[in-house]
From TrEMBL:
GO terms for cellular component: plasma membrane. Its main location: membrane. Keywords: Cell membrane, Membrane, Transmembrane, Transmembrane helix. It comes from Lentzea flaviverrucosa. The keyword Repeat does not apply. The keyword Coiled coil does not apply. This is TVP38/TMEM64 family membrane protein. InterPro entries: TMEM64, VTT_dom. The chain crosses the membrane at residues 6-26, 38-58, 70-98, 152-174, 186-203. It is found in: Cell membrane. Belongs to the TVP38/TMEM64 family. Pfam families: VTT_dom (PF09335). It is a multi-pass membrane protein. Residues 58-175 form the VTT domain.
């Protein structure tokens, strides 16, 4: 399933590059002019989209990248982080309401047991790792966290802090998405790879200490 998603994401990137050369796309300034014309409704709607999309398993990188394109790097990243954190908490609460048995059927017993141990020992650190590079997919981890021992306040804090680096990088990429060959877009892609590698190493170490694999 993950291989299929990776292939699909790669195909989407290639398609966007081809479209950018073939189609006369509106510029960033023009797009943001439309957004400004919508007034306060635009950021409010985007924040709600990020929150609802997170709970509904909509791909987070798409929304994070869109935030930079629509609102600029810092304002866009702030909106996305707030929306993703709200969506993660919504999922967390739903997971607790559904109960452990329902979530275990969804995620798998072994994954949930590993998350139990990881969160019990390193609630804040475990949440940070999940945001850098999920041990399980972002949306699913939010539901799973709801039936573990992690405290809601640590989960919320870890989510907000952990989302900062990856969301900023995605927003930077979104800000330059119509100029994919520019130095800043290449730098953003490189930074994303570095963050991903750091998340893999940190996550493996955390799981090794927990005595299991996800």
């Amino acid at each position: 399933m993950r291989d299929v998603r990776a292939i699909a994401l790669g195909a989407l990137v290639v398609a966007l590059v081809v479209v950018s050369f073939v189609v006369d796309l509106p510029g960033v300034d023009e797009i943001r002019s439309w957004i400004r014309g919508a007034g306060a409704w635009a950021p409010a709607a985007f924040l709600l989209l990020c929150a609802g999309g997170t709970a509904a398993f909509f791909p987070k990188p798409v929304l994070a990248t869109a935030s930079g394109l629509l609102f600029g790097v810092l304002p866009g990243a702030a909106l996305a982080i707030a929306g993703f954190t709200a969506g993660a908490l919504i999922s967390f609460v739903i997971g607790r309401l559904l109960g452990r048995e329902a979530v275990a059927r969804w995620l798998g017993g072994s994954r949930l047991r590993t998350l139990d141990v990881v969160f019990a020992k390193n609630g804040l650190a475990a949440t940070l790792v999940l945001r850098l590079l999920p041990v399980i997919p972002f949306a699913a981890s939010n539901y799973g966290a709801g039936v573990t021992a992690v405290r809601p306040v640590l989960f919320a804090l870890g989510t907000a802090l952990g989302l900062v680096p990856t969301t900023l990088v995605a927003a930077l990429l979104g800000d330059a998405v119509l100029d994919l060959g520019s130095p800043r877009s290449i730098a953003a892609l490189a930074a994303w790879l570095v963050l991903g590698a750091a998340g893999v190493l940190w996550g493996r170490n955390l799981l090794r200490r927990a005595g299991g694999t996800a």
